[in-house]
Amino acid sequence: FYVAYIAHSLTSCLTGKPSAPRDLDVSEVGADFVTLKWSAPKSDGGKAINAYSIEKRDMTRMIWVHVTDVKPGLRDYTLKKLLEGRNYQFRISATNEEGEGPFAQSDIISCEKPPEKPDIPSGSLQPCHVTESSVTMDWLPPYYDGGSRLLYYILEIKESDSDKWLEVTRTLDTSCLIRGLFEGMEYDFRVSAVNAIGASRPLPTEKPVIPTRQSGIIKDS
Q1: Are 200 and 194 in contact (CB under 8 A)?
Q2: What CATH architecture applies to the domain 126-204?
Q3: Which residues belong to any copy of the Fibronectin type-III domain (predicted)?
Q4: So where are the chain's domains?
Q5: Among residues 136, 131, 132, 117, which one has the least CA distance to residue 205?
């Protein structure tokens, strides 16, 4: 009897609820979803983990809501149907035969569409003033900056019978004077908008630009 009692007591001391999952991370955020990743608890409590429990909290309500239980072999889960622009917090616990362990909790996360490259500059890329050795090119900003402020525009030039584009300038202006051109030669231009994510598709001129002494001011027809 005493041997059995001691064995039971030792087993009880060595088993218990698991510790909190480790390394909880919100690895991906979208306008209406997040993906959680985590590692197994440091201690399983001496019993095999049989599930992870995931909860969420909308910071406008401050109430924890059970989302789902996932199998013990999983270490990631994507929560969908969240509301764009809302702030959320997430937590996860491990469960074994002894019960549910403590939660690991995430930082507050805002569900927003991630930034992307800007749209192509709008309107048309065209010369507003031409001389025998220079042109002034004008364009308009993109309709959408990709959710990240524009850093600059890249204006490029090439001779019309060439495939080699050369960068003219990087500027936040929507107009640029290009000097040192040859009278009568045909040139193509293109402009791209750039934000922190990258460059937009380039907007090209619709027809070659020819430096000409008589051109002067070009007006829209």
Answers
A1: yes
A2: Sandwich (2.60)
A3: 20-114, 121-215
A4: 22-111, 126-204
A5: 136
- Structure tokens, 59: 């910071």
| pLDDT at res. 214 | 65
Cα distance between residue 95 and residue 90, in whole Å:
17
- CA–CA dist 198, 151 (Å, integer): 10
The architecture of the domain spanning 22-111 is Sandwich (2.60)
Is residue 220 predicted with pLDDT exceeding 50?
Answer: no
SS3 at position 194: strand
CA distance 167 to 176: 12
Residue 78 confidence (pLDDT) above 70? yes
Whole-model pTM: value is: 0.61
CA distances 25 to 53, 57, 82, 170, Å, are: 15, 16, 17, 38
* Alpha-carbon span 217 to 213, nearest angstrom: 11
User: Under DSSP, is residue 20 helix (H, G, I), strand (E, B) or coil?
Assistant: coil
Cα–Cα distance between 122 and 217 in angstroms, integer?
A: 22
Bridge partners (DSSP) of residue 22 are 39
C-beta of residue 204 within 8 angstroms of C-beta of residue 125: yes
High-pLDDT (> 70) share of the chain, %: 90
Contact 96, 47 (CB under 8 A): yes
Segments in the chain forming alpha helices (H): 2-14
